[in-house]
Amino acid sequence: MSDVIEIAATTTLLSTRGLSVHYGGVTANADIDLTVDAGEIVGLIGPNGAGKTTFVDAVTGFAKSSGEVRLDGERVDRIAANRRRTAGMARTWQAGELFADLTVAQNLAVAVQRVGLRALISDVFTGSRPPAGIIDEALAMVGLLGVADRRPGELTLGQQKLVGVARALVGGTRLVLLDEPAAGLDTHESREFGAELRRIAATGVGILLIDHDMSLVLDVCDRLYVLDFGRVIAAGSPTEIQDDPAVVAAYLGSPEVQADSLDDGSAAERSAAERSATERSATDGPADEPGGGAR
Ligand SMILES: Nc1ncnc2c1ncn2[C@@H]1O[C@H](COP(=O)(O)OP(=O)(O)OP(=O)(O)O)[C@@H](O)[C@H]1O
Prior knowledge:
Layout: E1 12-23, E2 26-37, E3 41-45, H1 52-60, E4 66-71, E5 74-75, H2 81-87, E6 89-91, H3 104-111, H4 117-126, H5 132-141, H6 157-169, E7 175-179, H7 187-202, E8 206-210, H8 214-220, E9 223-228, E10 231-236, H9 238-242, H10 245-252, H11 265-283
Parallel strand pairs: 3-8, 3-9, 6-7, 7-8
Antiparallel strand pairs: 1-2, 1-4, 4-5, 9-10
Protein backbone atom coordinates (compact mmCIF):
# COMPACT_ATOMS: atom_id res chain seq x y z
CA MET A 1 0.00 0.00 0.00
CA SER A 2 1.47 3.31 -1.01
CA ASP A 3 1.91 6.13 1.42
CA VAL A 4 -0.62 8.88 0.91
CA ILE A 5 0.67 12.36 1.52
CA GLU A 6 -2.13 14.63 2.62
CA ILE A 7 -1.81 18.21 1.54
CA ALA A 8 -4.25 20.59 3.16
CA ALA A 9 -6.03 22.53 0.46
CA THR A 10 -5.87 26.28 0.88
CA THR A 11 -8.57 28.52 -0.45
CA THR A 12 -7.48 31.88 -1.72
CA LEU A 13 -10.29 34.16 -0.60
CA LEU A 14 -8.96 37.47 -1.86
CA SER A 15 -6.69 38.00 -4.78
CA THR A 16 -5.91 41.29 -6.50
CA ARG A 17 -3.92 41.70 -9.70
CA GLY A 18 -2.65 45.04 -10.90
CA LEU A 19 -5.00 46.93 -8.63
CA SER A 20 -4.51 50.65 -9.16
CA VAL A 21 -6.26 53.77 -7.91
CA HIS A 22 -5.64 57.32 -9.06
CA TYR A 23 -6.95 60.46 -7.40
CA GLY A 24 -6.29 63.20 -9.93
CA GLY A 25 -2.52 63.29 -10.25
CA VAL A 26 -1.96 61.13 -7.16
CA THR A 27 -1.33 57.42 -7.63
CA ALA A 28 -2.73 56.07 -4.37
CA ASN A 29 -2.39 52.37 -5.36
CA ALA A 30 -0.12 51.13 -8.14
CA ASP A 31 -0.36 47.59 -9.58
CA ILE A 32 -1.00 45.82 -6.30
CA ASP A 33 -0.97 42.00 -6.37
CA LEU A 34 -2.04 40.63 -3.00
CA THR A 35 -3.68 37.47 -1.69
CA VAL A 36 -5.41 36.44 1.53
CA ASP A 37 -6.18 32.76 2.15
CA ALA A 38 -8.99 31.35 4.26
CA GLY A 39 -7.88 31.22 7.90
CA GLU A 40 -4.99 33.60 7.30
CA ILE A 41 -4.25 36.99 8.83
CA VAL A 42 -2.41 39.19 6.36
CA GLY A 43 -1.05 42.55 7.44
CA LEU A 44 -0.94 45.62 5.20
CA ILE A 45 1.46 48.17 6.60
CA GLY A 46 3.26 51.28 5.44
CA PRO A 47 3.86 54.88 6.43
CA ASN A 48 1.00 57.40 6.62
CA GLY A 49 -0.37 58.12 3.15
CA ALA A 50 1.13 54.93 1.67
CA GLY A 51 -2.25 53.84 0.28
CA LYS A 52 -3.50 51.25 2.81
CA THR A 53 -7.02 52.62 3.27
CA THR A 54 -7.28 53.26 -0.45
CA PHE A 55 -6.56 49.57 -1.04
CA VAL A 56 -9.40 48.56 1.28
CA ASP A 57 -11.66 51.14 -0.42
CA ALA A 58 -10.80 49.70 -3.84
CA VAL A 59 -11.24 46.04 -2.84
CA THR A 60 -14.58 46.64 -1.17
CA GLY A 61 -15.95 48.87 -3.94
CA PHE A 62 -15.72 52.29 -2.30
CA ALA A 63 -13.03 53.66 -4.64
CA LYS A 64 -12.85 53.52 -8.42
CA SER A 65 -10.02 51.22 -9.41
CA SER A 66 -8.51 49.36 -12.34
CA GLY A 67 -7.16 45.82 -12.23
CA GLU A 68 -8.70 42.64 -10.87
CA VAL A 69 -10.29 41.84 -7.52
CA ARG A 70 -11.38 38.25 -6.98
CA LEU A 71 -13.30 36.84 -4.03
CA ASP A 72 -12.95 33.08 -3.85
CA GLY A 73 -11.90 33.08 -7.51
CA GLU A 74 -14.83 35.17 -8.78
CA ARG A 75 -14.28 38.63 -10.27
CA VAL A 76 -15.99 41.27 -8.10
CA ASP A 77 -14.23 44.41 -9.29
CA ARG A 78 -17.13 45.57 -11.45
CA ILE A 79 -19.92 45.03 -8.95
CA ALA A 80 -21.18 47.56 -6.41
CA ALA A 81 -20.00 47.69 -2.79
CA ASN A 82 -23.26 46.29 -1.37
CA ARG A 83 -23.07 43.28 -3.70
CA ARG A 84 -19.47 42.60 -2.67
CA ARG A 85 -20.73 42.68 0.94
CA THR A 86 -23.42 40.14 0.12
CA ALA A 87 -20.84 38.02 -1.72
CA GLY A 88 -18.90 37.66 1.56
CA MET A 89 -16.42 40.50 2.01
CA ALA A 90 -16.81 43.23 4.60
CA ARG A 91 -14.71 46.01 6.03
CA THR A 92 -14.41 48.21 9.05
CA TRP A 93 -13.81 51.96 8.88
CA GLN A 94 -11.11 53.97 10.64
CA ALA A 95 -13.74 56.06 12.41
CA GLY A 96 -15.96 53.09 13.09
CA GLU A 97 -17.79 54.36 16.14
CA LEU A 98 -20.72 52.36 17.44
CA PHE A 99 -24.17 53.86 17.92
CA ALA A 100 -24.18 54.76 21.62
CA ASP A 101 -27.97 54.57 22.04
CA LEU A 102 -28.32 51.15 20.43
CA THR A 103 -27.54 47.83 22.06
CA VAL A 104 -24.67 45.74 20.79
CA ALA A 105 -27.10 43.47 18.91
CA GLN A 106 -28.85 46.46 17.35
CA ASN A 107 -25.49 47.87 16.26
CA LEU A 108 -24.89 44.64 14.36
CA ALA A 109 -28.40 44.58 12.92
CA VAL A 110 -27.92 48.06 11.44
CA ALA A 111 -24.87 46.81 9.54
CA VAL A 112 -26.90 44.28 7.59
CA GLN A 113 -29.98 46.42 7.08
CA ARG A 114 -30.94 46.27 3.44
CA VAL A 115 -30.44 49.49 1.48
CA GLY A 116 -32.49 51.20 -1.20
CA LEU A 117 -35.98 52.60 -1.44
CA ARG A 118 -37.61 49.29 -2.36
CA ALA A 119 -36.05 47.57 0.67
CA LEU A 120 -37.04 50.47 2.92
CA ILE A 121 -40.68 50.35 1.78
CA SER A 122 -40.87 46.56 2.12
CA ASP A 123 -39.23 46.69 5.56
CA VAL A 124 -41.73 49.31 6.74
CA PHE A 125 -44.65 47.11 5.71
CA THR A 126 -43.29 43.75 6.75
CA GLY A 127 -41.32 44.88 9.83
CA SER A 128 -38.45 42.86 8.37
CA ARG A 129 -35.39 42.45 10.62
CA PRO A 130 -32.20 40.42 10.19
CA PRO A 131 -32.63 36.99 11.76
CA ALA A 132 -31.34 36.91 15.37
CA GLY A 133 -29.25 33.84 14.54
CA ILE A 134 -26.82 35.71 12.33
CA ILE A 135 -26.29 38.41 14.97
CA ASP A 136 -25.61 35.81 17.67
CA GLU A 137 -23.27 33.93 15.37
CA ALA A 138 -21.14 37.05 14.74
CA LEU A 139 -21.08 37.94 18.45
CA ALA A 140 -20.09 34.39 19.36
CA MET A 141 -17.19 34.61 16.89
CA VAL A 142 -15.70 37.50 18.88
CA GLY A 143 -16.61 36.00 22.27
CA LEU A 144 -19.23 38.64 23.09
CA LEU A 145 -22.51 36.73 23.03
CA GLY A 146 -23.08 37.66 26.67
CA VAL A 147 -23.22 41.41 26.01
CA ALA A 148 -25.75 41.46 23.14
CA ASP A 149 -28.23 43.58 25.14
CA ARG A 150 -25.73 46.03 26.61
CA ARG A 151 -24.97 49.46 25.22
CA PRO A 152 -21.43 50.22 23.95
CA GLY A 153 -20.77 52.61 26.85
CA GLU A 154 -21.06 49.69 29.29
CA LEU A 155 -18.25 47.78 27.56
CA THR A 156 -14.48 48.09 27.78
CA LEU A 157 -12.73 49.75 24.84
CA GLY A 158 -11.35 46.38 23.78
CA GLN A 159 -14.86 44.90 23.73
CA GLN A 160 -16.16 47.88 21.75
CA LYS A 161 -13.44 47.30 19.14
CA LEU A 162 -14.51 43.66 18.90
CA VAL A 163 -18.13 44.72 18.39
CA GLY A 164 -16.80 46.72 15.43
CA VAL A 165 -15.24 43.54 14.06
CA ALA A 166 -18.42 41.54 14.73
CA ARG A 167 -20.37 44.15 12.80
CA ALA A 168 -18.25 43.32 9.77
CA LEU A 169 -18.53 39.57 10.34
CA VAL A 170 -22.31 39.44 10.56
CA GLY A 171 -24.04 37.69 7.68
CA GLY A 172 -21.54 34.99 6.81
CA THR A 173 -18.57 37.19 5.94
CA ARG A 174 -15.64 35.09 4.71
CA LEU A 175 -13.13 37.90 4.18
CA VAL A 176 -12.88 40.85 6.52
CA LEU A 177 -10.73 43.93 5.95
CA LEU A 178 -9.94 45.73 9.20
CA ASP A 179 -8.76 49.34 8.98
CA GLU A 180 -6.93 50.23 12.20
CA PRO A 181 -9.29 48.21 14.37
CA ALA A 182 -7.07 48.40 17.46
CA ALA A 183 -6.51 52.17 17.49
CA GLY A 184 -6.49 53.51 21.04
CA LEU A 185 -5.99 50.17 22.79
CA ASP A 186 -3.22 49.84 25.36
CA THR A 187 -0.63 47.07 25.14
CA HIS A 188 -2.62 44.56 27.19
CA GLU A 189 -5.91 45.24 25.38
CA SER A 190 -4.14 45.08 22.03
CA ARG A 191 -2.70 41.65 22.89
CA GLU A 192 -6.15 40.35 23.87
CA PHE A 193 -7.58 41.81 20.69
CA GLY A 194 -4.88 40.04 18.65
CA ALA A 195 -5.69 36.71 20.34
CA GLU A 196 -9.34 37.19 19.39
CA LEU A 197 -8.36 37.87 15.76
CA ARG A 198 -6.45 34.57 15.75
CA ARG A 199 -9.54 32.76 17.04
CA ILE A 200 -11.65 34.34 14.30
CA ALA A 201 -9.13 33.31 11.64
CA ALA A 202 -9.14 29.77 13.05
CA THR A 203 -12.80 29.51 11.99
CA GLY A 204 -11.66 29.92 8.36
CA VAL A 205 -12.27 33.64 7.93
CA GLY A 206 -9.55 35.48 6.01
CA ILE A 207 -8.43 38.74 7.60
CA LEU A 208 -6.62 41.70 6.07
CA LEU A 209 -5.31 43.83 8.90
CA ILE A 210 -4.13 47.42 8.70
CA ASP A 211 -2.72 48.81 11.92
CA HIS A 212 0.02 51.13 13.08
CA ASP A 213 0.49 49.01 16.22
CA MET A 214 3.56 47.11 15.03
CA SER A 215 3.67 44.67 17.93
CA LEU A 216 0.09 43.62 17.17
CA VAL A 217 0.75 43.29 13.45
CA LEU A 218 4.04 41.41 13.81
CA ASP A 219 2.53 39.13 16.46
CA VAL A 220 -0.70 38.04 14.78
CA CYS A 221 -0.03 38.17 11.05
CA ASP A 222 0.98 35.13 9.03
CA ARG A 223 2.25 37.32 6.21
CA LEU A 224 2.69 41.02 5.57
CA TYR A 225 2.70 43.36 2.60
CA VAL A 226 4.40 46.71 2.89
CA LEU A 227 3.20 49.67 0.84
CA ASP A 228 5.07 52.85 0.12
CA PHE A 229 3.81 55.54 -2.26
CA GLY A 230 1.04 53.15 -3.31
CA ARG A 231 3.36 50.29 -4.33
CA VAL A 232 4.18 46.99 -2.66
CA ILE A 233 7.82 47.32 -1.67
CA ALA A 234 8.05 44.06 0.30
CA ALA A 235 6.02 40.96 1.13
CA GLY A 236 6.76 38.03 3.39
CA SER A 237 6.67 36.70 6.91
CA PRO A 238 6.93 39.13 9.84
CA THR A 239 10.57 38.12 10.31
CA GLU A 240 11.43 38.65 6.65
CA ILE A 241 9.73 42.03 6.67
CA GLN A 242 11.51 43.23 9.80
CA ASP A 243 14.86 42.41 8.19
CA ASP A 244 14.07 44.00 4.83
CA PRO A 245 16.24 47.09 4.25
CA ALA A 246 13.65 48.66 1.90
CA VAL A 247 11.04 48.45 4.65
CA VAL A 248 13.32 49.93 7.26
CA ALA A 249 14.22 52.73 4.87
CA ALA A 250 10.57 53.42 4.01
CA TYR A 251 9.60 53.64 7.64
CA LEU A 252 12.58 55.37 9.03
CA GLY A 253 14.14 57.15 6.10
CA SER A 254 17.50 55.47 6.56
CA PRO A 255 18.63 51.88 6.03
CA GLU A 256 21.17 52.32 8.81
CA VAL A 257 18.45 52.49 11.44
CA GLN A 258 17.94 49.23 13.34
CA ALA A 259 15.14 47.05 12.01
CA ASP A 260 13.85 46.40 15.52
CA SER A 261 12.71 50.00 15.57
CA LEU A 262 9.78 48.69 13.51
CA ASP A 263 8.42 47.38 16.77
CA ASP A 264 7.87 50.95 17.79
CA GLY A 265 4.74 52.28 16.07
CA SER A 266 5.62 55.82 17.05
CA ALA A 267 8.74 55.59 14.90
CA ALA A 268 6.52 55.06 11.87
CA GLU A 269 4.39 58.06 12.74
CA ARG A 270 7.43 60.20 13.39
CA SER A 271 9.07 59.09 10.19
CA ALA A 272 5.91 59.77 8.17
CA ALA A 273 5.75 63.33 9.49
CA GLU A 274 9.41 63.84 8.62
CA ARG A 275 8.92 62.29 5.18
CA SER A 276 5.95 64.44 4.31
CA ALA A 277 7.80 67.57 5.47
CA THR A 278 10.74 66.58 3.24
CA GLU A 279 8.44 65.78 0.32
CA ARG A 280 6.63 69.07 0.75
CA SER A 281 9.82 71.07 0.68
CA ALA A 282 11.12 69.01 -2.26
CA THR A 283 7.98 69.59 -4.31
CA ASP A 284 7.14 73.13 -3.20
CA GLY A 285 7.04 74.91 -6.52
CA PRO A 286 5.37 78.09 -7.63
CA ALA A 287 1.89 78.53 -6.14
CA ASP A 288 0.23 77.82 -9.50
CA GLU A 289 2.13 74.57 -10.14
CA PRO A 290 -0.45 71.75 -10.24
CA GLY A 291 -0.10 69.02 -7.64
CA GLY A 292 2.69 70.75 -5.75
CA GLY A 293 3.30 68.82 -2.55
CA ALA A 294 0.70 66.12 -3.25
CA ARG A 295 1.69 62.49 -2.99
N1 LIG B 1 -10.60 60.65 -1.63
C1 LIG B 1 -9.35 61.04 -1.93
N2 LIG B 1 -9.14 62.04 -2.81
C2 LIG B 1 -7.88 62.42 -3.14
N3 LIG B 1 -6.76 61.86 -2.62
C3 LIG B 1 -6.93 60.86 -1.73
C4 LIG B 1 -8.22 60.39 -1.33
N4 LIG B 1 -8.06 59.38 -0.44
C5 LIG B 1 -6.73 59.24 -0.29
N5 LIG B 1 -6.05 60.12 -1.06
C6 LIG B 1 -4.59 60.23 -1.19
O1 LIG B 1 -4.13 58.92 -1.52
C7 LIG B 1 -2.91 58.65 -0.84
C8 LIG B 1 -3.08 57.39 0.00
O2 LIG B 1 -3.95 57.68 1.10
P1 LIG B 1 -4.46 56.57 2.11
O3 LIG B 1 -5.44 57.22 3.02
O4 LIG B 1 -4.92 55.40 1.34
O5 LIG B 1 -3.13 56.21 2.87
P2 LIG B 1 -2.95 55.32 4.22
O6 LIG B 1 -1.76 54.48 3.99
O7 LIG B 1 -4.22 54.65 4.56
O8 LIG B 1 -2.62 56.45 5.29
P3 LIG B 1 -2.88 56.44 6.90
O9 LIG B 1 -1.93 55.46 7.49
O10 LIG B 1 -2.55 57.85 7.28
O11 LIG B 1 -4.33 56.11 7.13
C9 LIG B 1 -2.57 59.90 -0.03
O12 LIG B 1 -1.71 60.71 -0.80
C10 LIG B 1 -3.91 60.58 0.15
O13 LIG B 1 -3.77 61.97 0.29
